[in-house]
Amino acid sequence: MQTAYTVLILLMLVGVSRLLWRVIPLPLPLVQIAAGALLAWPTLGLHVALDPELFLFLFLPPLLFSDGWRMPKRELWRLRGPILTLAVGLVLFTVVGAGYFIHWLLPAIPLPVAFALAAVLSPTDAVAVSAISQNRLPTPLTHMLQGEALMNDASGLVTFKFALAAAVTGAFSLATASLTFVLVAVGGLAVGVVLSWLVGRFRVWMIARGWDDPATHVVFMLLLPFAAYVLAERLGVSGILSAVAAGMMQSWLDLLPRQTSTRLLNRSVWSLLEFAFNGLIFLLLGLQLPDIVKAVASHETSLWPTLAYRCLEVLAIFLALVALRFIWVHSIWRLSELLRGWRGKSQLSGMAKGRSCWLLTVGGVRGAVTLAGVMSVPLLIAPGVDFPERDLLFFIAAGVILLSLATASIALPLLLRDLPKSQDDQHRGEVREAWKKTAEAAIHVLEAEELGAAQDTTQDAVQDATQAALAIELKAQLMAEYRHQLEVFNDSAEAQALAFQMDQLDRRLRLKALRAQRLELYRLSRQHQIGDDVLREVLAELDLSEANLGAVK
């Protein structure tokens, strides 16, 4: 029962922290970390023992799956060059540079362990950046940070596992590791794509037989990231990349017919799950902080001098990470400008190069994935042998997360101070075009109905009517709606039957029009005329409109 009580308390605190965040001018992760540390205070004494493997399995697959689902694929492809340099090149640059710096600063940490720590400090959290910047970042920079966060979650954690294996076994070969990295990465992506495709085909088979209960389909979706992770790990490839690939593949397969209720339920469930899991991770960090601080200073005679010295070491590591990131971003930005100028293309952003580089640098906030990765470090390196400096690794990772959140909270508003809120003209234009095209598709479908001469008359009236005629038409529509309400509440059985028939006919026509809009929306997406974010926005409104129609007989 104690475990059940603890889970319920943590879930309640996740909700309470969201309410506190409304009145406390701090990023939500910092509020949740503080709440967890308060719970772990000796007076309250809440303690949670974490199993590293269980923690990694429980939290990472659904979070990475959700990131892959939400990532705009068209923007990911358009900015693939800068994103790959940040998500792969910067990760390797950070692992080598920060790894050697950590080992030099803290010789007690072996070099492979320092590389592992640098790797787990590489993943970034774009959700936290969006919350801090309040969506004022220029759109290209936002997409770059989103793509980087998605890709470096996988590349950083895969590199982390290789470095961790080298720390445990004591053996490492660069050539072997490079080849294995490629095979593990490609294998993980393939497993995720294939498994997600098979689940999609199974759902199509179920729908064709009338088994379209939303709850059943959503349960399959909830199990998919865990299944992709476990299957890939059993096959010896990357479960992390498998979960990401499954999410990206499933975002395409989510456009199945007769799945309006499933999509509505799925969005709600995944929003709740993502919010709860992210909150739980930061709460658990707060709960572990007192134990981490005690463990770090347990071998020293004095607590506060030791703690202050450790904090300075964390600050030095954080500054090294910021410096490495700025050097890489500035170099790649300059190279990108040269290449785009050589090709005759415009810059990625209309902002100054220096400010863009600093925004990308400060935007590299560490978050849930870093914490989940470091908490997966095993307790023992061998039977009876503790993992070297495990508590210190926790302390450094927690300190870097806190410092990156605090720095972004201060620096991003200053860097964005004289900039207006981001107005994505392309996004708004695509939304307008999508609504226009889908409305035209709905009109064409309704025009195809055999309505006889009445329809021709109505069509001619729409084309040739004056302002006064339009007013009369609108009045007639309003009066018809009120007459319909009178007929619905009429005591006459014949009148009620007629009203019911008219209502069902109206719903059938509206449903046919909505489905025509949805098909047109899918066509625009397949032809890359609109992005995934526009697709999701318009599709959500169409699904809500169809759900409001209720059952149509």
| Residues in helix, % | over 70%
Strands of the biggest beta sheet: in what spatial order?
1-2
CATH topology term of the largest domain: Na+/H+ antiporter like fold
The CATH architecture term of the largest domain is Up-down Bundle
What would you call the shape? Answer: globular
Number of helices: 21
CATH class of the largest domain: Mainly Alpha
Radius of gyration: 28 Å
- Integer tally of domains: 2
Distance between the termini: 48 Å
Strand count, sense and barrel status of the largest sheet are:
2 strands, antiparallel
Stretches with pLDDT under 50, minimum 5 residues: 450-459
Structural class: mainly alpha
Would you give an account of this structure?
The structure is a single chain. The model is unreliable at 450-459 (pLDDT under 50). The protein folds into two domains: 2-48 and 60-423, Na+/H+ antiporter like fold (Up-down Bundle); 426-549, no CATH class. The chain is built from 21 helices and two strands. The protein is globular and about 90 Å long. By secondary structure, it is mainly α. It has a two-stranded antiparallel sheet. Strand 1 and strand 2 (385-386) form a beta hairpin.
What can be said about this structure in brief?
This protein has 553 residues and is an all-alpha fold. The protein is built from 21 helices and two strands. A two-stranded antiparallel sheet has the order 1-2.
